[in-house]
Amino acid sequence: MLTVAAPDAAEARCNATFEALMWSMARPGEVRELPEPGLAPIVEALIDRECAAYTDSVELASMIADTGAVLAVDLAMADHLFLGELTGAASELDAIRCGSALYPDDGATLVAQVAHGAGQRLRFTGPGIDGARDMMIALPPEFWAMRARLCAYPEGFDLLLVDGQAVIGIPRSTQIEVL
Amino acid sequence: MSLSALTKPWAATSYGFLDASAKRELRRKMLKAIAVPGCQMPYASREVPMARGWGTGGLQVTLTLVNPASTIKVIDQGADDGVNAASIRRFISRVSGATETWDTLGASIIQSRHRVPEETLGADQILVLQVPNPEPLRGVEPNMSIARQMHADADYGRLWLTLYEQIVRKGRIMQGAAYPSLVNGRHVMTPSPIPRWDVPKLHMAKHLTFLSAGREKRLHAVPPYTRVEPLVFSDRPYRVEDHADLVCRRSGISGYFMNEIPQDHGGSAFEVSDSNLGIKAIRRAEGEPVEIGATWYQDGEFSA
Fold this sequence. Notes:
The complex is a heterodimer.
Chain A: H1 9-26, E1 32-33, H2 40-46, E2 52-55, H3 58-67, E3 70-71, E4 80-83, E5 109-113, E6 116-125, E7 133-137, H4 141-150, E8 158-163, E9 166-170, E10 175-178
Helix pairs in contact in A: 1-2
Chain B: H1 3-6, H2 20-35, E1 41-42, H3 56-65, E2 71-76, H4 83-96, E3 99-100, E4 109-113, E5 126-130, H5 144-152, H6 157-170, E6 181-183, E7 187-189, E8 208-213, E9 218-222, E10 228-230, E11 258-262, E12 268-272, H7 275-285, E13 297-298, E14 301-302
Parallel strand pairs in B: 2-3, 2-4, 4-5, 5-8
Antiparallel strand pairs in B: 1-9, 6-7, 6-10, 8-9, 11-12, 13-14
């Protein structure tokens, strides 16, 4: 008779991280809780040698290198981006991969540390949202203008915004109105 | 860096059968599938101890999601006690320690072949549908590279033509299961061979749906509150099966999707397809306190 081994700590953490990421993507703007603060649990749950990841953080770079993923020097090469700070990088993000209508899955996932509940007021509509959802995210209006320009659905990139342990997902299917 | 930092303690099997790299790939693809509802995302589709075409796609999604706190329901054409459903449910529970259930209301993950349960799914439930053929365009375009281009161009005229030809030849739309449906106004998907009865249950639903085809190595998703509109003509409204007036011969309930049981004398008898709903109705009739949840259909009319 097969006995079930309990999941080890890493397995349980990855499972909980993915559950938070999945529901945050499925319900854009809804805050979900990661098992640990920061971007590290997301790297652990998603990244391995099949990925090309870009990061601006030295600690995350060594963590990503340990997974066997390619460390992209150019963010246009990366399928996953992990940014400790997003505000200054907005203009460089123009080069982010958005996939194509033929291959929408080539669009990148941008994971960034951004404060929730402060800054610009936004209104989300689209799949996963019953009606509309208003919230505040500390990103300048120029960032949302750039996102609207790049995300020509089904092309586009997907956002995971982390503030401590809280995560908000904004898939490319979400329309954002800057209030 | 030391050797111990690069390795893990020995274990006889990976938790949840799939190894960590398989799960990471599925996680990445499932996030992309949610981000582009209805768009088919390719994935590697690892080996599982079951033949391709018997629910391996759904099984891989479930094994990625499962944890010891999960409660698993697996149905095959609505029934929890089919050999395939029972085997899959027992396998998932054996490799993960998850609880097994037949009750739609108590399940956190519902893996299903070809039906959506009759009781309305809630916001924290995940429906995993096993899909034999994820490509709605296969019948009109066998070349998958051209089909991909057609998806990119939202070129779905030939699907409407197929439906039109059915109306011209037979006087009504004959497409029974896997009715092509437009998701989020952009991608047409085949909602796995669920009957027409079940397609409205995916439209603006509270739950999250994954549709995964293990043999074809593709998965797609329908997030909550996403438009799922069956392709119809403005003068030919979408019609579900005429099951509203059929009565289940075992439980006596009516207004749900029924299985037709041919009889020796040539007629038919009917049994409710969602077998656990029937079981609950019988138990309630026998006086047991059984909770039957709200259903999508009331008296045979869709009302959600």
